[in-house]
Amino acid sequence: MIRHTTVLFILLAGALSLVVFGVKYQVQDLEHKLTTLNRDIKGNERSIHVLNAEWSHMNNPKDLKELAERHLGMQPIQTKQLAEWSNLDERLAELDLDQNQDQDVSYMAKRINSPVSLPPSPLVADRMTDQRRNFR
Description:
This protein is mainly alpha-helical. It folds into two domains: 56 residues; 59 residues, no CATH class. It is built from five helices and no strands. It is rod-shaped, with a radius of gyration of 36 Å.
C-alpha cells in the first residue's frame, strides 16, 4: 500500500507543476508585451529624431525671413521706427496724431509706416476655427 505521505507529495508536485505552467505562460505574455513596447519606443524615438531634423530645417532664419516677407508682409524694422522713452514725446509730436481720429493700433501702424501684422479680430478667429473644424 502506498503511504499517505507519498500520495501527498504526488498531489503537491502536480499542483506545483500546474502553478509553474501558468506562471510560465504569464511570463511569456509579459515578455511579448515588453518586446512590443520596446519596438514602439524605438519607432517613436526615430519619429522624434525625424521631427527634430524637420524643425531645424524649417527654422532656418533665411527661409523664415523669406516666408515672413512673402506671406505676412513683414519687413525689417527701420531706424526711424525706433524711439527711446526720453524722446517719446518728440516722436509722438512728429507723427502729428489727430486727437479726433480713432487711435487704435492699425491707425498708428499706418501713420508710422510700420509693416505690422495684426491678429485677427475675435469674430474672424471664430470663423477661422469653424473653417478648420469643417475642413477636418
